[in-house]
Amino acid sequence: MKSEKCQNQPCPVETTLKLIGGKWKGLLIYRLLDGKKRFSQLQKLIPSITHRSLSLQLKELEAAGLVKRTVYPEVPPKVEYELTVLGQSMSSIIYAIYDWGKFYQEGHK
Predict the structure, then answer these.
(1) Is 24 buried (19+), middle (13-18) or exposed (0-12) by CB count in 10 A?
(2) Of 66, 69, 60, which is closest to residue 87 (Cα–Cα)?
(3) Are 71 and 55 in contact (CB under 8 A)?
(4) How far apart are CA 39 and CA 53, in angstroms?
(5) Where in 1-109 does DSSP place strands (E)?
(6) What are the residues whose beta carbons fall under 8 Å from the beta carbon of 23, sequence distance 6 or more?
(7) What is the DSSP annotation of 12-36?
(8) Cβ contact 61:29 at 8 Å
(9) Which domains are delineated in the chain?
(10) Is the peptide bond before 76 cis (omega within 30 degrees of 0)?
């Protein structure tokens, strides 16, 4: 059983949840799966997130190597966020979470 493998070492589930846990990270990865987004686009897609939370979560995802931030030398500066190859590799996890959430919303059918 896989749960037995987590006895005396960091559990891979714990590692994954540290990277995408919290209220917004999984949702940000989901929103970035279909391509690059600007900060304002992400705010529109997730209207309940505060400017500060969005900024912090994107910085944490960038530090983890899941998101790439590109600044274009324009005035005003244009900044885009996109998933790295590592971030894209989480697509099956994010889609599984989506599917389970839909199942749950539909009354556990």
Answers:
(1) buried
(2) 66
(3) no
(4) 12
(5) 37-38, 67-72, 78-83
(6) 53
(7) HHHHHHHHH-SSSHHHHHHHHTTS-
(8) yes
(9) 24-104 (1.10.10.10)
(10) yes
CA dist., res. 98 & res. 100, Å (int)? 6
Q: Is the pLDDT of residue 4 over 70?
A: no
The per-residue pLDDT for range 14-44, each reduced to its tens digit, is 889 889 988 999 999 999 999 999 999 999 9
Rounded distance between C-alpha atoms, residue 39 and residue 48, angstroms: 14
The number of C-alpha atoms within 13 Å of 107 and in the hemisphere containing its C-beta is: 1
User: How crowded is residue 62: how many other Cβ atoms within 10 Å of its Cβ?
Assistant: 15
Tokens of 4: 């037995």
